[in-house]
């Protein structure tokens, strides 16, 4: 009974860690830019596919298992470059438009990313095998917890503290909070709103793609 409860709690904590990363990206964008971003799930998918490709390449090169985590982070960062491209190329035209325009455009982005994934990776599912087993496991009261799950939970907790530090202790975070409360006042005080939006959307995209990449193993 206790082992079953521990299994459920550890699996739930792992899933919650992934969802936290994706939800943080969504909230950062919505909080500052006031955009209903339906494409956040597509960024998650991009990160997952890129993560699978990067890990497969690392396996092919015969690199040690601990570096698989580096591959996943690299995958998340690599595909996050679509963030500023989408923000400058599409989203900047609808900030002052009604919400239906935002929903339609971000849904169109979902369809475009879906087709891009099919074009790049095809229709066949990708797999990395049981890579997560390379991180070992931990036995607790009869329950076996994969070491990779603990790593992801630790990464999510670390990112949570990093986000808190960013928002509360840095000038960029203060500007983000000020703009979220009153964009016009921030602009009047000299904040470069377009540049801020690029940085914020890039951060949100990175959190989403990283969540997708870490889900892969």
TrEMBL record:
UniProt key word Oxidoreductase: no
Q: Which organism is it from?
A: Candidatus Entotheonella gemina
TM ranges: 12-31, 43-61, 67-91, 103-123, 147-168, 189-214
The name on file for this protein is Branched-chain amino acid ABC transporter permease
What is an annotated GO biological process for this record, any one?
A: amino acid transport
Family to which this protein belongs: Belongs to the binding-protein-dependent transport system permease family. LivHM subfamily.
Listed GO cellular component terms?
plasma membrane
Q: Where in the cell is it found?
A: Cell membrane
GO MF annotations for this entry?
A: transmembrane transporter activity
What superkingdom does the record give? Answer: Bacteria
Q: Which key words are in the record? A: Amino-acid transport, Cell membrane, Membrane, Transmembrane, Transmembrane helix, Transport
Q: What is its main location?
A: membrane
Q: Which InterPro entries match?
A: ABC_transp_permease, BCAA_transport_permease
How does it sit in the bilayer?
Multi-pass membrane protein
């Amino acid at each position: 009974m206790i082992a079953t409860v521990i299994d459920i709690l550890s699996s739930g904590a792992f899933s919650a860690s992934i969802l936290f990363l994706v939800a943080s990206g969504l909230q950062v964008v919505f909080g500052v830019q006031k955009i209903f971003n339906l494409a956040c799930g597509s960024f998650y998918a991009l990160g997952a596919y890129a993560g699978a490709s990067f890990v497969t390449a690392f396996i092919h090169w015969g690199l040690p298992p601990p570096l698989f985590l580096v591959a996943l982070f690299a995958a998340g960062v690599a595909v996050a470059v679509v963030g500023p491209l989408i923000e400058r190329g599409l989203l900047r035209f609808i900030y002052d438009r009604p919400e239906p325009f935002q929903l339609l455009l971000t849904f169109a982005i979902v369809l475009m990313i879906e087709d891009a994934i099919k074009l790049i990776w095809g229709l066949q599912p990708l797999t990395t095998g049981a890579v997560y087993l390379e991180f070992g496991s931990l036995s607790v009261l009869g329950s076996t917890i994969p070491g990779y799950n603990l790593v992801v939970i630790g990464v999510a907790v670390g990112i949570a503290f990093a986000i808190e530090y960013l928002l509360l202790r840095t000038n960029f975070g203060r500007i983000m909070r000020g703009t979220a409360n009153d964009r016009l006042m921030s602009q009047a005080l000299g904040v470069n709103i377009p540049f801020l939006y690029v940085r914020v959307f890039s951060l949100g995209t990175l959190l989403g793609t990283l969540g997708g990449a870490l889900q892969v193993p």
